[in-house]
Design a protein that fits this description.
Number of domains: 5
Distance between the termini: 65 Å
Largest sheet: 7 strands, mixed
CATH topology of the largest domain: Beta-Lactamase
Bound molecules: adenosine-5'-diphosphate
Shape: rod-shaped
Number of helices: 15
Length: about 625
């Protein structure tokens, strides 16, 4: 069965190939672009929330450490005002004798030791140091004029002097707290405490905290990282630089700006600072970012800044971004795989359905075809029955024809038979009359000879009638015949005619057994030899050749004469029933038709040849029974 091509027809190339090509061309770059995009978004969100969380945490840290700084500074706030209560100080300021100075020096030295400050000293209203805790030191402040110091100028005006500066004597940084000493509502001098705040820096370093304190000028005065110290967190104009240099607040140290690569304000007091990789502040090769949170310190014009490195956060955000990208890639891969699998299943289902459909169609067609075959089988059976019936009818008709042919032949032969029988009858009449006379005369030997002759004549007449009887008898398809006997019988039947024309007979065949009824073979031979005799009637030297040969399981007997032959027109109709060229009652036109049909009925054949030498040759082929018993005749 042919399957319906429509069922398996693939989609047209324009529909099937293009989308796949487009998919293969654009899907990978699209997935990569989406991976990068989602990775960036993941990175950004992670960084954003990380910064927020860091900022919240940093706020607490900022508060904690700023408070620590405030308490460290405020610890000394009361100290200069204490000196107001000390009478030796007011005596010195009122009467600066060496004794009074020494007394105050000793007192200040002891106080300084107990309070663990760096130095405590007292100035008069002109700014000259009258007494100091470090009077023993070589670089003692004693007698120095520090009126240019801002803390002095504030304190002498009755304002609290808070000042971070680098000492002009020994270049040592310190926090100066100044207080105007009052007596009877009038300022008589200024008491100053110098405190070192480096301990805080050490504490920050130990705690691995990155922080700094910037003063009112924006200059970093305390920093966990020494490299940041004395850097400005605000832009410095040349004018400001000069002013600060003149004030000697920072001694002679050059003031540079702390230059971040990028500065991003996230909220009030919260910034994101990025320092370049080659910065002296950064030891690593890559840029480093910090979350800078700033808060003012109470009681001072200073700010405390806490720096939280964003490296880890950044690394984590990158990891999160990569994770998101990988997760997306995985998801995309799973989706593609799922889609491909879905398509494969869909294709399989479609193929299965198509197969099922084809199968159904096949079954339908088989059923149809089976019905057709059954019908045609029934038709064939009917035809076979009809053919058998027709064959039976034909056979019967053939038998009838054979019989009719025989009878016709007998009719044809009746003249010669009558002639055949009349001759011996006439001879018998004469001989019997003679014999009676010879007996009356007593010539017994002559009478005996006549009687013998009469006997022979009666035998001959008996043979003639016997062969006529056997010829007229019905035969059948089966049976065996002896070729030699059949030829003899045929010649016997045609004896009178053979003798009349003085036929020269050539017998060149073997006495074989052939598969045909003896009578039928005789009938065929009577027909063939009879026709030959008819054709040779005008021939002065008639000759008949009976030539046989075995060939391919059959025996071929050629009956050839040297008669007038058959013309071209007659050759076409030879084997047609009732075709005859013989005049009047002589021919029926059934001889050859019957002979051919009798030969064919036993599996043999009757054909005709027209020899170039003239005459006609009929070739009779019959199946052999066996050749072994064959003897040449
Ligand atoms: P019939 O002998 O009654 O005419 P046949 O069927 O035997 O019918 O022969 C048909 C015709 O074939 C004859 O009339 C004759 O013309 C031709 N025919 C048959 N045998 C020979 C032969 N040996 N030589 C010439 N013509 C022949």
């Amino acid at each position: 069965m042919k399957c319906d091509p429509n069922l398996y027809r693939a989609a047209s190339p324009s529909l099937a190939v293009k989308p796949r090509l487009v998919r293969h061309l654009f899907l990978p770059p699209l997935i990569i672009a989406m991976m990068i995009g989602l990775g960036c978004i993941g990175f950004w969100i992670s960084e954003h929330y990380g910064i927020r969380s860091l900022s919240e945490n940093g706020q607490r840290q900022l508060e904690l450490h700023a408070r620590a700084v405030e308490s460290e500074i405020s610890k000394y706030t009361y100290l200069p005002s204490l000196l107001e209560l000390e009478t030796s100080v007011s005596q010195l300021l009122a009467d600066p004798t060496p004794e009074h100075r020494q007394t105050v020096n000793d007192y200040l030295e002891g106080l300084n030791r107990r309070s663990r400050s760096r130095a405590i000293y007292v100035m008069d209203t002109t700014g000259r140091v009258m007494a100091t805790s470090n009077w023993r030191d070589v670089d003692s402040y004693l007698g120095e004029d520090l009126s240019f110091r801002a803390y002095f100028q504030n304190a002498v005006r009755g304002q609290p002097g808070r000042f971070y500066g680098i000492g002009s004597t020994n270049g040592e940084p310190g926090y100066y707290l100044a207080h105007g000493l009052e007596e009877h509502g009038k300022i008589i001098g200024v008491a100053v405490v110098k405190v070192r705040l480096e301990a805080m820096e050490e504490r920050w370093q130990r705690a691995r905290l990155e922080a700094f304190v910037s003063d009112e000028n924006g200059i970093i005065i305390l920093s966990s990282d020494p490299a940041r110290r004395l850097k400005s967190v605000v832009p410095l104009s040349e004018e400001t630089k000069e002013k600060l240099a003149r004030s000697l607040q920072y001694y002679w140290f050059p003031l540079n700006e702390l230059q971040p690569l990028a500065r991003e304000t996230l909220s009030e007091g919260v910034e994101k600072l990025t320092f370049p990789a080659n910065s002296e502040l950064v030891s690593d090769d890559e840029n480093i970012s910090y979350l800078a949170q700033t808060r003012p310190l109470s009681d001072t014009p200073w700010n405390f800044t806490l720096l939280t490195p964003l490296q880890d956060l950044r690394r984590e955000a990158i990891n999160q971004g990569i994770l998101v990208a990988v997760a997306f890639a995985l998801l995309a891969f799973l989706l593609i795989a799922w889609n491909e699998r879905r398509k494969v299943i869909a294709t399989r289902l479609a193929a299965r359905e198509a197969l099922q459909e084809a199968n159904n169609q096949l079954e339908r067609r088989i059923t149809e075809r089976t019905t057709d075959l059954r019908a045609s089988n029934e038709r064939l059976k009917g035809q076979i029955r009809e053919r058998r019936l027709a064959e039976e009818t034909l056979r019967r008709a053939q038998d009838e024809l054979v019989q009719a042919g025989k009878l016709a032949a007998i009719g044809q032969m009746s003249t010669s038979i009558a002639h055949e029988l009349n001759q011996p009858l006439a001879a018998l009449r004469t001989l019997s009359g003679n014999t009676v006379r010879f007996l009356e005369r007593g010539q017994l030997d002559v009478a005996s000879t006549n009687l013998k002759t009469i006997n022979e004549l009666i035998d001959r007449m008996g043979r003639i009638t016997a062969s006529l009887r056997s010829f007229a008898r019905r035969g059948d398809d089966k049976g065996q015949a002896c070729l030699g006997k059949a030829v003899d019988a045929a010649l016997q039947l045609l004896g009178g005619r053979v003798e009349n024309i003085h036929l020269q007979l050539h017998r060149d065949f073997t006495d074989v057994q052939v598969q045909i009824d003896q009578t039928r073979l005789e009938q065929i031979l009577v027909n063939l030899i009879g026709n030959a005799l008819d054709a040779m009637q005008a021939q002065p030297q008639p000759e008949l050749w009976l030539e046989g040969e075995a060939f391919d399981g059959k025996y071929r007997l050629r009956v050839r004469d040297n008669g007038h032959g058959i013309d071209a027109e007659a050759r076409k109709h030879l084997f047609e029933p009732f075709f005859t060229t013989k005049p009047g009652e002589q021919g029926l036109g059934l001889g050859l038709t019957l002979s051919a049909s009798l030969a064919a009925a036993t599996g043999g054949h009757l054909g005709v040849e027209h020899p170039a030498s003239g005459g006609t040759a009929f070739v009779l082929s019959l199946p052999l029974v066996s050749l072994t018993s064959a003897e040449p005749i």
